[in-house]
Amino acid sequence: MTRTIVASATREIIIGFDQPFCVIGERINPTGRKKLAAEMIAGNFETVIRDALEQAAC
Fold first, then answer.
1. Does residue 43 lie in a domain region?
2. Is residue 49 part of a domain?
3. Per the domain annotation, does 53 fall within a domain?
4. What are the C-alpha distances in Å from 21 to residues 11, 36, 43?
5. Could you give the residue ranges of the DSSP H alpha helices within 1-58?
6. How many domains does the chain fold into?
7. What is the DSSP letter of 4?
8. pLDDT tens across 1-58, in order?
9. Distance CA 55, CA 19 (A)
10. How far apart are alpha carbons 37 and 28 in whole angstroms?
11. In DSSP terms, which residues pair with 4 in a beta bridge?
12. What percent of the residues of the chain are helix, what percent strand, and what percent coil, each to the nearest 5?
């Protein structure tokens, strides 16, 4: 069975047909989020980090 491993510095998630369901969102995509895009252009990634941590809570 094929598995995919997605990892960060502190966490690892295995994605596969024999694994529990895990929602992977798109909250850190700045498309349609003008404020987020402006923050990223300015080098401010606080919102990205917060959104990513909330999103990774599988």
1. yes
2. yes
3. yes
4. 16, 28, 34
5. 34-41, 46-55
6. 1
7. E
8. 788 998 888 888 888 888 888 776 677 888 989 999 999 999 999 998 888 888 766 5
9. 18
10. 10
11. 15
12. 30, 15, 50
Tokens 């941590």 correspond to 53
* Predicted pLDDT of residue 38: 96
| Domain encompassing residue 35 | 23-58
Q: Are 33 and 25 spatial neighbours (Cβ–Cβ below 8 Å)?
A: no
**Looking up tokens 């989020």, which residue turns up?**
33
| Amino acid 6: pLDDT | 87
How many angstroms separate the CA atoms of 20 and 10, rounded?
A: 19
User: What is the chain's length?
Assistant: 58
Assess contact for 7 and 16: CB atoms under 8 A.
no
| 11 assigned to some structural domain | no
* C-alpha neighbours within 13 Å on the C-beta side of residue 16: 9
